[in-house]
């Protein structure tokens, strides 16, 4: 946890007064159990960022036989939460490379402050993923990857993607949902208001965010 928070602290500074955050999710069948939980967490991210000048969030997800969806950019929680509520997970292979390539294309049009990715598996060529994550790093867009479950292959891959993009990787499961919530709020604060906003949030946040304040000091 401390290492993750240190990575958040070291990530490139976001533009204060509002930012854009790509929130990408694995929507394959293995993640159905935690999808509804993610909907609630997404709404809380918006609420945290609202007082910092706002945050635009784009929901992206993959599922089924090569289906990849990226929605509109939303300045309020309602639009993204409605989109997530309508999604049902379908079996299929991971498409993380599509997520990263989409993030590269989006930030070349208008800068993205960060990419959040939540998933539990990796079934792609790791060299291709790493090359794309390195491009994100060169563009100054960190990936914050949240690894659900205990797949060592996915965990190792996510750690590499985080390192190459200048972001961070953190494990979570159903019993640590509160930590995921607090850490996503921290990333939202970073995207909306930069490191200063992160520090302000840490002064009033939960245990994970308090650890972040310690790292900042």
CATH names the topology as Rossmann fold
Quickly count the domains: 1
Strand content: 15-25%
- SSE class: alpha/beta
Radius of gyration, Cα only, in angstroms? 15 Å
Largest sheet: 6 strands, mixed
The stretches of 5 or more residues where confidence is low (pLDDT under 50) are 13-17, 212-217
Strand order across the biggest sheet?
3-2-1-4-5-6
SSE pattern, N- to C-terminal: HEHEEHHEHEHEHH
Relevant terms:
Rossmann fold; 217 residues; six-stranded mixed beta sheet; single chain; 53% helix; alpha/beta; 8 helices
What this model shows, in words?
With 217 residues, the chain is of the alpha/beta class. The chain has a single domain (2-216), classed as Rossmann fold, CATH 3.40.50.410. The protein is 53% helix and 19% strand. It contains eight helices and six strands. Strands 3-2-1-4-5-6 form a six-stranded mixed beta sheet, sandwiched between helices. Helix 5 (126-138) runs parallel beside helix 6 (152-165).
């Amino acid at each position: 946890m401390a290492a993750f928070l240190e990575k958040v602290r070291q990530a490139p500074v976001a533009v204060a007064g509002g930012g854009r955050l790509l929130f990408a999710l694995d929507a394959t069948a293995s993640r159905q159990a935690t999808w509804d939980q993610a909907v609630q967490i997404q709404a809380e991210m918006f609420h945290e960022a609202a007082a910092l000048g706002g945050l635009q969030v784009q929901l992206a997800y993959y599922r089924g036989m090569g289906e990849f969806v990226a929605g509109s950019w939303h300045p309020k929680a309602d639009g993204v939460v409605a989109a997530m509520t309508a999604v049902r997970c379908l079996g299929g292979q991971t498409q993380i490379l599509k997520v990263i390539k989409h993030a590269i294309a989006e930030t070349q049009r208008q800068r993205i402050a960060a990419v959040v990715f939540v998933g539990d598996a990796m079934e792609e060529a790791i060299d291709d993923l790493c090359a794309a994550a390195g491009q994100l790093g060169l563009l100054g867009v960190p990936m914050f990857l949240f690894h659900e479950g205990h797949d060592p292959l996915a965990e190792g891959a996510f750690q590499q993607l985080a390192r190459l993009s200048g972001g961070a990787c953190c494990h979570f499961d159903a019993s640590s949902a509160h930590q995921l919530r607090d850490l996503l709020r921290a990333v939202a604060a970073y995207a909306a208001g930069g490191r200063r906003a992160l520090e302000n949030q840490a002064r009033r946040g939960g245990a994970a965010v308090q650890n972040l304040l310690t790292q900042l000091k």
